Amino acid sequence: KVNKLPVCVLLDSIRSSYNVGSIFRTSDGAMIEKLYLCGYTPHPPKKEVLKTALDSQNSVSWEYVNDAKEVVIELKKKGYKICALELTDNSIPHYSLNKNDLPICLLVGNEITGVSQDLIDLCDVSIEIPQYGIKQSLNVAVAYGIAIFELRKIYDL
Fold this sequence. Notes:
7-stranded parallel β-sheet, Alpha/beta knot, alpha/beta
């Protein structure tokens, strides 16, 4: 039996329904604990989300909460390490986390503006995916996939 990954994921004001649907599918594949959709993040039953989610909205525990800060504060009280998937002055490579860092609440921000500063201020750590090209930018759903499966690998070791 495979255990759920002790990671809650918070999507803060993701713009694209298709990215959200893709994140649902990836979350199912990694077997995360819960997905929080916050701010103006589109959510089921929006048809564009459902189109790319391919029914994974029924296998992933999820909740819409308008105020992301409220979720972060609550999970912090429950002992979750708050981790932004964001390039900051202090961010560390995504593969630098270890099993002792779990449980984690992974914050994933808007495609253009990233994780908001008021949420970064609540974080214990920021992780980044090292990149070597010119753009220094990945699609949010792709970046999430890389990060969540690294956490899955850490947990399964």
